[in-house]
Amino acid sequence: MGQSLTKFLTDYCDPHTVATNVRSFVGRKRRRDEVEDQDNDSDLLLEKTLHTPKKKKLLSTAQYIYRALFKEGNNSDVTVIALGKPWRLHKVYLCQSPYFASMFSGAWREAKEDIVHIKVVDPKINLDSLYTVLGSLYLDEITLEPIEVVPTLATATLFQLEGIIDQCAEIMIETVNAETAVKYYEAACEYGVQKVKEVAFKWLLINLLSHFQDQSKRLREISVDLMQKLVSSSDLFVMQTEFSIYVLLRFWMFLHLHPEWESSSRESLLEAQQYFQNRKDEEPFLASREGKRFAGPFQALRFQHLVNHHLDIDMLKSDQIVPLDWLAPSVSQQWYHMLRVDQGLDRGPKSMENDEFCRDCVRCGRTLVDAGEHVWRWTGFNMGLDLIWSCSTRTLRVKRNHRTEHEVMLSLQSRRHIMCRVTLASLDEQRQVKHTQSTGLKSLTLYKNEEVTLLVLDKDLTYPLLLSVNLLFNTAIVPSQETGSTNVLPSPAPSPNVNEED
Fold first, then answer.
1. Around Cβ 128, how many Cβ atoms within 10 Å?
2. What is the 3-state secondary structure (H, E, C) of 5-57?
3. Predicted local confidence at residue 337, as pLDDT
4. How far apart (Å, rounded) are the C-alpha atoms in residues 127 and 133?
5. Are 478 and 472 spatial neighbours (Cβ–Cβ below 8 Å)?
6. Domain residue spans in the chain?
7. Architecture of domain 76-207
8. Is pTM, for the whole model, over 0.90?
9. What's the rounded Cα separation, in Å, for the pair 100 and 90?
10. C-beta of residue 390 within 8 angstroms of C-beta of residue 373
11. How does pLDDT run across 109-142, given as a tens digit for each residue?
12. What pLDDT score does 488 carry?
């Protein structure tokens, strides 16, 4: 018995044997569990597969309608012929347009006919725009390229489709740039899209002098009427002084007179100047038969600010473009202003209405190409004020410079008042305004050599930075009560505080 027990313990209770048996048992159990887990996973996957919805993109109802009814013309009940092309269409869809709804209702002849002729007189409407607009009546949305937007707008206006007109307007506003600004403005005027007209006009005010002088093709596109409106505006961003507007107008007029002219801006500006100076006719060009049609934009110039520098006057005379009798009232007016300042009768305006300021103010400006400290002055006789302007990355400042070596040409009044408005603008890749900052209309009182800060620059302003400045140095002149004209010596506007050292 003892030997049997010893043998049992030796055979079955040996540690090595026990470990081997345990591993074998555990291994068999793990394999059974893995097989069971795999079976369970397969069942779950099958269950999930059977209960998961399967998506397959089918032809939508709108797409089917567009293809079957518009493109293929199935079950058409009317044929519309426009620009020589027949369109097999359906009255129920066409009547979404008030144009067709009116045509197919009431006592109109077309209401009972199967073939309708559309007379298209607008040259901007083409077959592609007809395809887009007529096809839109069979769709719930359309996609437009900017290059197609003006013909599409023209066609949508013909068929009175306000939704497409609004979509065209959105695209036009987003894509106003050097290539499209004039075209969009003219289209907006023609088709009554006021918002587009305003945006395009504002773009031109900002970019006309800062960008279009190098764009002869685009500058030539500007009509006489549009140019007159731009030059008349007090919001025009002028680069340098009023005389730069005159130079641009001279170049613009030269381009209209020479439709085929293509050259660099520097050569073109010189050629334009020589063309007018070398004319044999002694009659000023704007008074001639050929030049009268361009008179409007030149008459919109502020001549009182064109006669503040002797070199500018010399150029005006040698060009023989502007009749000298246009300049005479401004010369008389400025001389009268100067005498009043010299006699201490006018220390400058302290307050006025915005409309009055906009009508009479000096327009000047410049482009600040990069960040840093910029210091400059605008030349010309500004009623005895020498203003030094400076701009850093943080502030815009103006100083009344009064150095003793220049006192002979400076106002000796210890205190001078001016009105001003400064506007800064940063542009994006399309030269649309992405950020702007303005002082609004400000009244400044400056002592000799005093410097004031006009603006603390917004951090969102980026370079290049366009700067537009409007200034007024004198109090207003009231037209003569007898003549109603400023061609004679005018009466000064009532200003009880103008001479007081307050």
1. 12
2. HHHHHHHHCCHHHHHHHHHHHHHHHHHHHHHHHHHHHHHHHHHHHHHCCCCCC
3. 87
4. 10
5. no
6. 76-207, 214-322, 354-492
7. 2-Layer Sandwich (3.30)
8. no
9. 11
10. yes
11. 777 788 999 999 999 999 999 999 999 999 988 8
12. 45
